[in-house]
């Protein structure tokens, strides 16, 4: 009688398991927000048992924090083309069009992860603690201080507007695109409009003199109610 074959154990891959858990947590973060994140549900989504998930992350709060950091580091590397901790980029050397294209493509490829990160950062009492937000908003602030920028840019507001629009656009696009090719076209449309708005805005000032005056005055005068 032939001897039964010895079962081979699957090789342990702690880092791969951790990545799977974090990816699943990012998806749930986008769906339910930080308060709705459950280690048990994330474990089920990642295809691991609950005990394994708790071995990697002892609590929901630690999982939320680690997930936001994990997504942020990937955003940083993909969008800026460098690793977190690299020297501060010189504003004049930044490829603005390339950065805008990469951000739009990344959002289209990973809508759940990007939305999960966005919801976490917008609700954070200290967004500057996030490595991607800190560099994105910081680079706009450095740009606003140069002669290349228009005056009176509110870099914090502009950062929220640009990132929220970029990360919400795939929700619209994926509901209408039939495949990867159409999603790519929609991603390019987003990048093109972001660049156009950054370069030219949308209103001809001679037709809106009151708004032009208000913008010229900045926030010195109270806005009309």
Task: Outline the structure in words.
The chain has 225 residues and is an all-alpha fold. The protein has one domain (60-217): Tetracycline Repressor, domain 2. Helices cover 66% and strands 0% of the residues. The chain has 10 helices and no strands. Helix 4 (60-80) packs across helix 6, helix 5 (96-109) packs across helix 8 (155-176) and helix 7 crosses helix 8 (155-176). The longest helix has 22 residues, at 155-176.
Helix content: 55-70%
CATH top level is: Mainly Alpha
The number of helices is 10
Instruction: Give the overall form.
Output: elongated
Low-pLDDT residue intervals, each spanning 5 or more residues: 6-10
How would you summarize the topology of this molecule?
Blueprint: H1 14-32, H2 39-46, H3 50-56, H4 60-80, H5 96-109, H6 111-123, H7 131-144, H8 155-176, H9 180-200, H10 209-217
What distinguishing features does this structure have?
225 residues; mainly alpha
């Amino acid at each position: 009688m032939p001897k039964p074959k010895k079962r081979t154990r699957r090789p342990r891959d702690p880092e791969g398991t951790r990545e799977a858990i974090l990816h699943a947590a990012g998806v749930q973060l986008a769906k339910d927000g930080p308060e709705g994140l459950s280690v048990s549900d994330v474990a089920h989504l990642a295809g691991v048992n609950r005990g394994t998930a708790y071995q990697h992350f002892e609590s929901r709060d630690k999982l939320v924090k680690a997930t936001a950091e994990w997504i942020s580091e990937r955003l940083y590397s993909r969008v800026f083309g460098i690793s977190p901790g690299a020297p501060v980029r010189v504003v004049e050397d930044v490829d603005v069009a390339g950065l805008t294209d990469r951000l739009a493509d990344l959002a289209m490829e990973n809508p759940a992860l990007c939305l999960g990160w966005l919801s976490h950062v917008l609700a954070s009492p200290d967004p500057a603690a996030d490595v991607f937000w800190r560099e994105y908003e910081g680079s706009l602030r450095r740009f606003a201080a140069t002669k290349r920028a228009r005056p009176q840019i509110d870099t914090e507001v502009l950062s929220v507007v640009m990132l929220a629009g970029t990360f919400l656009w795939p929700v619209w696009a994926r509901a209408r695109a039939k495949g990867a090719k159409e999603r790519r076209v929609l991603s390019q449309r987003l990048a093109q409009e972001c660049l156009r708005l950054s370069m030219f805005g949308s209103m001809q000032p001679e037709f809106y003199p009151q708004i032009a005056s208000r913008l010229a005055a900045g926030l010195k005068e109270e806005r009309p109610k």
